[in-house]
Structure formats: C-alpha cells, structure tokens
Amino acid sequence: MDDPEHYRLTLTSDGAVVMQDWWPDRAIGERKFLSWIGSYSAVADARIVLTERGDDGEERVLQRWPSDEA
Length: 70
Fold this sequence. Notes:
This protein is of the alpha+beta class. Helix content is 21%, strand content 43%.
C-alpha cells in the first residue's frame, strides 16, 4: 500500500506555512507543484517546495520555486 504522506507540497510566505498537502504518488505531487506555482506565485514572498519522505522519515527536496532558493 502506498504511503499517503510520502510527497509533501508546502507553500510559505514570509517564512510562515500558508498551506501544505501530501500525496502517495510523485507524479501527482509534481503536477500539483506546477499547479501551485500558477495559482500562488502572486502571493507575497511565496515559496513552494515539493519534498519526498524517505523510509527513514527524513525529507529531501525534489523541487522548489523559485528555483534559485538554496
């Protein structure tokens, strides 16, 4: 069974979490990532990050917007 909280998408503004959601499938997370950029890029100081949670519970960044963020 897929982990329903394997891929997390987070939108922050001014460093505060505005919203986040989880998906079991990477393709869904990647589609939502692009959708969120289109929908929320006008939010002041918006940052959007897609992460994957590994079997060890650690998260690694797969994609971020804007992409020049460290």
